[in-house]
Design a protein that fits this description.
The chain is of the alpha+beta class and 142 residues long. The chain contains three helices and six strands. A six-stranded mixed beta sheet has the order 2-1-6-5-4-3, with helices on one face. A hairpin with a 5-residue loop joins strand 4 and strand 5. The protein starts with a helix and ends with a strand.
Amino acid sequence: MLGACVSRASSKDAEKDAIAALLQQFEDGLNDGDAEKESGCFASDAVIMAAGYEPVIGMDAIRGTYAYLFSATEFRCTFTIREIILQCPEWAVMRTTMEESSMEKDSGEKGTSYNQELFVLNKMCGEWKIARYCFNTIRSPA
């Protein structure tokens, strides 16, 4: 009986590690300004929901949005995982905060902001992908 509990716990830890690796890939894509790397983190039917904007729906729209953002702005982001909840073998929720420094390429204007994010993740073909991504700006992380 104890062996089954340990096995389930180590399996959950492995899934959380895989989700954390996906977030690292996402952070690297933002910091590298790489729209292909960034969009590769998403499911083909993913949705991005940013406060104050219309949703970005589907892989083509997501890739185009990141290409546009990266053509105009350089980012330096650091995410902190606040929690990962494994809902079932194929679905998880991750809550994060992020500190972002940015620079507009045309003007050189710099800024710093803090976001809180909610990721809904779907495991497809053995790989975690972002199915839904919501974020908004906050004063600073708690």
